[in-house]
Amino acid sequence: MAILWIINLNNMLRLFVSLILFIPFFGYTQSDKIIWENVKPIEPDRYIEVKGSPFLFETFVESKVLTNNNLSIENVLLNYNGYTHQFEALHDGLPFILEEKYYERFEFVTQKYDRHYSNTMSDTTVFIYGLNPEARNKFYILVYENQDLTIFKDFRIEKTERAVETPGKTELFINFSPFFTYYTLINGKKVSRFKLNKKSVIGLFEESKEMNQFIKSNKLSLKSEKDLKKLLEFNSSINQ
C-alpha cells in the first residue's frame, strides 16, 4: 500500500508541474509559444531619467516576424531599442526582450518613427540577420537590394552625460543621441560605409551624364532615403 501511495503521489506531482507549465500558454497558438516562451521581462520605466528615446519607433508597432525555422508570425507588437540593440515585444502592457537567436527577419510597415528620422526612414523597415558579412551575428536594416548591390544601415543610440554646476549643487543631464550608419555591399563581398549626402552618394557610382541630369531634373538633394532610392532605381534601369 505504501508503494502504491508513493507512485500515485509522484504521478500527481508530475501532473501538477505539467499544469503549471501549461497554464501560461493556454489558448496560445504555436506561433505565440515561439514568441512568448523565449522572452525576458524588463522594467518599463528604466529610462525615466534620460531625455529622449532609445527606440526607433514612437510606439510599439504591429510587425511581421520570420523565425530561423522559416515560420512567419504576424501582428506581434514590437519596437527596436537602439541603445541595447535588442527587439522588445509588448504583451499585456508589459515589455519583454526577444531572444534574437530564434529569428531571421523583422518587418515593420509604419510611419510611426521619430520625426527627426524622417530623412532616414521609409514606410517599410526590414531588419535582417546576418546582412553584413563582416558582422554576421547582428541585425541590420535593409534599404535597397538588387543583383549586385545591397544598401543597408545600422541604427544605434548612444547615452551621453553632462554635469552642470549650479549654486549649491551639481546637476546631471543624461540624453539619448541617435546615429544611422549606411553601408554598401557589392557582389555579396565588399562592404563600405557612406554618408547620406550628395557627395558621398554620387561617389558610389561611375560618373555619368545621365545620372547627373537625372539628379538635376528631379532636384535630388540625396540627403534622404527617398532620394537615394530614386537614384538607385534609375541607375539600375540604365544598366540593365
Describe this structure in words.
This protein has helices at 2-22, 30-36, 198-202, 209-217, 225-238, and strands at 39-41, 61-67, 72-81, 86-91, 94-98, 103-109, 124-129, 139-145, 149-166, 169-186, 190-194. Strands 1-5-4-3-2-6-7-8-9-10-11 form an 11-stranded antiparallel beta sheet. It has 240 residues and is an alpha+beta fold. The protein is built from 5 helices and 11 strands. Helices cover 23% and strands 38% of the residues.
Descriptive keywords:
alpha+beta, globular, 240 residues, single chain
Explain briefly what this protein structure is.
The protein has 240 residues and is an alpha+beta fold.
Q: Summarize the helix and strand pattern as letters.
A: HHEEEEEEEEEEEHHH
What is the CA-atom radius of gyration, in angstroms? 24 Å
- Calculate the mean pLDDT score and round it: 85
Largest sheet, strands/sense/barrel? 11 strands, antiparallel
**Strand percentage:** 35-45%
Tally of individual helices: 5
The low-confidence runs, each spanning 5 or more residues with pLDDT under 50, are 1-27
- Give a count of the beta strands, DSSP E runs of length 2 or more: 11
Distance between the termini: 84 Å
Instruction: Report helical residue fraction.
Output: 10-25%
User: Strands across the major sheet, in which order?
Assistant: 1-5-4-3-2-6-7-8-9-10-11
SS-based class: alpha+beta
General shape: globular
